[in-house]
């Protein structure tokens, strides 16, 4: 599904060149639920930005769904984001001026779907996250957990092949975080590929596979939860 | 206050700062020139006429049928007008100040000269003209009774019979003789040399086609008849005007059955009509200047509010780090001052450019330099007033903003 | 997608009503002022006789003495009686007409109306066919009428309404300053703008109420209206017939460029002949301008009107710069929204389109306001003095131009902000500084 090979990302200023990612390789198969962990500044966010086609890598190759997406132009990348990727943000990033229904509608609009189709998908997605009763509410009228569920509904409405989550529970209290996590697990069971960046070991433990990033390089911990626990203890 | 951090911050929002500066520059350029035009127009429309306009009324008549005795009747009518109660003087002249219709001639110093020195307007007046019009004689004398001729006999008469003496305005004297005393000097009217026997302070032209010669008039001792556009002028107190006009109409109808009164107007009304276009233009320019200032001020309010909102967190952090409200306020005020200053600097150059263009196309004088600082101060004030509300809002951002997410 | 953008724009504009109002008012004011002044300029610089303006010419020759002469001097705008009549009678053009302004004191017969003075035109027979004058009743007079100095008159529809209640007055007698004239024709609505055939009586004057044959008007001394320039002894006792005074307009119709060239030759020959007879001491200075060339040369459009147009356009630019600033602020305030939309898959073009639609909506509102202000402005112009004020009306092309100008203006002012907005990088986090 997602395959990065010898990927690098350099940030250049006038004085220095620093690498956020260096010789970064990772392979996420279809249907996997991968947690990406790592200390602050390790390159997690850069990885996610590149995975989500928000940034372009400096070197190496990136294949998404069998397609080399490293050299695509801005429009093509927008198109892929819209068609294949769903985003869940730490800060929810709902558009405050739009109500819940219209927020979920945003990605569908850029797909130029018929209004009947959009309506069906929005209703389904909101039902799935249990917020169909709040369709006409505005983001500011919802709790953090509810807002994140709306964000998830927005990501789901487009039935993306790949769901990218950036600290999805980072702004939530424990109880709400648990509910959101449950929702993600359900979505995974239904067949979605999920890549989640988190610094929370407990959350990471619930994923199928853990990837640890240190200094822009991957330490793939595979599917062995024990090993994972050890490493996370070391890094903590 | 230290400018450097403000300038550094401005560099990060070049576009918005540049837009305000451009707006100020355009405003400055337009307003400086518009103010100049306004004052030019108002000055023009308040040009001195040399006569008490609110005391003077002109009456125009025209004939409905041939009448061989019309000139005699006209003079009899003039006499009867003088008898109307409230009339302080009455005269019959060929044209009146601001009356539009005018008689003009190019003047030369000697009949054999090839080139005209100045174009002047020609008043033909009777003995009562000076006292009726109330023009001020500043040198020499008025004509004596024996010196007046009749227009009907002078028309087409040989040069030898044309008037040889003339009274001119001070401005015409300057145009003809420079700073020398014009009294007793001669110049050529057509092919006839005429001698200046008196100088009037002012007597404005009926129609001003060149501001520089608006007061270039001369008076010949010629009694008008009824025809050739001759007009009655009555002098009366403003409060008696309406009654005098009504009485005069009746007298004229009695005295001259073959003539009708075309119109009766106060000289003040004639001036108003004459300069209405200028006053309208001045009013229009004032409206544009005011609109420009309002639009620009609101634009500054809008953009400054945006900046304040965008930098709320930054302001909160500064406040948390110990900046006083006054310091925050002054930060935004100084920022506005810097932007407006750049705008003014560019605007002044543009103002001068526009002025040059106006000079070329509209024969206007060069924009006086003192308009520039006046315009600059006005725009600085405008900027400070406009930025005050957003700056106060910035100053009231609580320091706790720093610790809360936006 | 357009409907979605329009819907988003509507929400966004309603969310900040003060800011929206400020932008709309700024554009509206700028557009209103520009359209008002441009409409006036358009009316005043129009072609008064479009179907014939290219074949009507105004000959100028210079019969003055050598006083005040300088190299390259333009010949006088006007022509005198002697030269005018000579050229008229030579008949070298397809048509030719000689004319001057005058007055007519009319004594209505058997009516309750008092005698009144109105403007008259003393002219010759070709006036009516040459200038395509529309006739309501009857027709103009003939060259023969001119020749025998017939006391005939053509009046305008408005005078006909005033004197005869609109009835066909052809054949009736009109009493002008004690002289009886027979009415031969009534002119229908006609107002060439500018008043090209005689600018002396006002660049935008209305058509005179009464037309009488030139010689009749002069002989009866009905009263001239206009400028007279004399040289030498000033024309003596009868300046109207003096060769040393100019006060009339001569117009000729020349159907082809060849005829125009031939007429130029004819004018030069005429001047040479006259010089041989002792007149025309100045070097040949002959001009033959077409209607539009003549209007241009005479600078008929008031300089104030041009100045007003520049002023209004300057004002519009300030308003637009102002709107650019406000839109930029407004759009950049929403960079968070843009980042999310971009992350979700909106392309740059889509974001650009969304914001341009919002700018366009401001433009449409500004256009409507601008149009209302322009109508108000033109109404105000019509209340002003000056013979052209009453002409200030908006027409369909100007109406469409207003809408186009406003939309264009707001789209231009939306370009930079929308472009800046679509440059916001897609991001996972809302960043704020």
Mean pLDDT of chain A: 83
* N-end to C-end Cα span of chain C: 32 Å
Judged by helices, strands and strand pairing, the structural class of chain A is alpha/beta
If interface size is counted as residues with C-beta under 8 Å from the partner's C-beta, which chains form the largest one? B-C, 58 and 53 residues
The profile of the biggest β sheet of chain A is:
6 strands, mixed
Q: Roughly what percent helix of chain A? A: 25-40%
Q: Report strand order across the widest sheet of chain A.
A: 6-7-8-3-9-10
Strand tally of chain C is 12
Low-confidence stretches of chain C: none
Low-confidence stretches of chain A: 224-236
What oligomeric state do the depicted chains represent?
Answer: heterotrimer
Explain this structure to me?
- The complex is a heterotrimer of chains A (236), B (406) and C (433).
- Chain A is an alpha/beta fold and 236 residues long.
- Helices cover 38% and strands 25% of the residues of chain A.
- Chain A has helices spanning 44-51, 74-84, 100-109, 115-128, 144-157, 174-189, 201-205, 225-235, and strands at 2-12, 17-28, 33-37, 59-64, 67-68, 85-88, 162-166, 193-197, 209-214, 217-220.
- In chain A, a hairpin with a 2-residue loop joins strand 4 and strand 5 (67-68).
- In chain A, helix 4 (115-128) crosses helix 5 and helix 5 runs parallel beside helix 6 (174-189).
- Chain B is an alpha+beta fold.
- In chain B, the strands form two sheets. A six-stranded mixed β-barrel of chain B has the order 3-4-10-7-9-8. In chain B, strands 2-11-1-12 form a four-stranded antiparallel sheet.
- In chain B, a hairpin with a 2-residue loop joins strand 8 (186-189) and strand 9.
- In chain B, helix 1 (3-11) crosses helix 10 (325-362), helix 3 packs antiparallel against helix 7 (241-255) and helix 8 runs parallel beside helix 11 (371-395).
- Chain C has two domains: 2-45 and 302-422, no CATH class; 56-297, no CATH class.
- Chain C has helices at residues 2-15, 17-44, 81-90, 127-130, 143-147, 157-164, 214-219, 257-276, 291-297, 303-333, 335-344, 348-382, 396-422, and strands at 56-60, 95-106, 116-123, 135-138, 152-156, 173-176, 179-187, 210-213, 229-230, 245-246, 249-253, 287-290.
- In chain C, a hairpin with a 2-residue loop joins strand 6 and strand 7.
- The longest helix of chain C is centred in the last third of the chain and has 35 residues, at 348-382.
- At the B-C interface, helix 2, helix 8 and helix 10 of B face helix 2 and helix 10 of C.
